[in-house]
Amino acid sequence: MIEVGIIGYGFAGRCFHAYLIGLAQGLKLSAVVSRDAERRARAEAEHGVRTYAAVEGLLADPGIDLVVVATPHDTHADLTIRSLEAGKHVVTDKVMAMTAAECDAMIAAARRTGRLLSVFHNRRWDFDFATVRQVIAEGWIGEPFLYESSITGYGAPRGWRADAEAAGTLLADWGAHLIDQALLLVDADVESVWCDVQARKWEATSGSHGLLQMRFANGVLFRVEVSRLAKAPKPRWYILGEEGGLVKTGRDPQEPAMIAGDIDAAREDPADRARVFTQRGGLSAEMVVESLRPSWKLYYQNIADVLLKGTELAVKPEEARRVVAVLDAAAESLRTRASVAVASTWG
Predict the structure, then answer these.
(1) How many domains does the chain have?
(2) Which of 161, 168, 178 is nearest to 228 (CA)?
(3) CA neighbours within 13 Å on the CB side: how many for 300?
């Protein structure tokens, strides 16, 4: 049994990590770190865990095998490296770190200590993403050349996520998932990045509306849009291929089901199913595709299986580093107001 300690018991630590760890065979949540006494008491009441007011207590706990870093983005690198050097395996929440240089230091620490390092890109197991990958793999729209991936809504960010010093831009939050999905969908490296982030209405230095465009070496354009200032709805996916296209509305339903206490109860509104338009074989057709149903539970089950059975790691740190390399280029694009060439996201 792998004993797990979580650093941070806010929304992500409590509602995502603690919940999903509890469903993984081979993992046991045993400790929580929080500076907030009320959160420590809540963690103890909900999970019967040991609690610490400071990270040092967790890192000195000989019973803890795996540390989960569920804290603001600007703390990920330091906490990860300290945990690895204390002999712990580490899962850090996305985004992996604030810069690719920090990611490189984290990867070097994992290699030096011989410990596991992974990043919580749970949205590789989203219903919509899995369905998009299947449609493309089966060739229904031919060779894709344009992707638009959007998460939009209307409302001010809360807490540290509003602060660019702690969070980066809003593209480093939801956008990190969308960039990760882009890098999995397109079989080429990123050639250039253009970005714009606007800070309107809400007093949030992390921004209220962000656009990021990646041009890949094979000519594919991939546009990521994240907005806190969008009252008008926009499709989650809009994809054009040489033989057709795809439109998909609605967000993955697992988060609300999980927060309600039963992720397996997640159900997608049939109105949000993907519509596929195809010209394959010379015949025009339009079809509605029922979404696949992968599960976020698979992320932590993979972590357990890696540590206990030697299974291949599903989310490798080198892959998560690519996301941050794109965000580094996006930051340079914001500074220069120009498209920025990318030598390689692999470092």
Answers:
(1) 2
(2) 161
(3) 24
Residues 68 and 91: their CA atoms lie apart, in Å, by 5
Q: Do 195 and 82 lie in a common domain?
A: no
Q: Residue 337 CA to chain centroid, in angstroms? A: 26
192 and 64 belong to one structural domain: no
Nearest to 13 by CA among 71, 78, 89, 97: 71
Q: What is the DSSP letter of 73?
A: G
Taking each helix axis as running N to C, give the angle between helix 100-113 and helix 76-85, from 0 to 180 degrees, rounded to the nearest 10.
Answer: 10
Largest CA distance in the chain: 66
Q: Is 24 exposed, middle or buried (CB count within 10 Å of its CB: 0-12, 13-18, 19+)?
A: buried
- Encode pLDDT of 254-282 as tens digits: 999 999 999 999 999 999 999 999 987 77
The whole model's pTM is what? 0.97
| Residues 225 and 89 occupy one common structural domain | no
Angle, CA of 148, 328 and 101, to the nearest 5°: 140
- pLDDT-derived band at 283 (thresholds 50, 70, 90) equals confident
As a whole number of angstroms, the distance between CA 98 and CA 317 comes to 14
What's the pLDDT tens digit per position in 22-65?
Answer: 999 999 999 999 999 999 999 999 999 999 999 999 999 999 99
Same domain, 165 and 106: no
In a domain, 142, yes or no: yes
Looking at residue 79, its pLDDT comes to 98
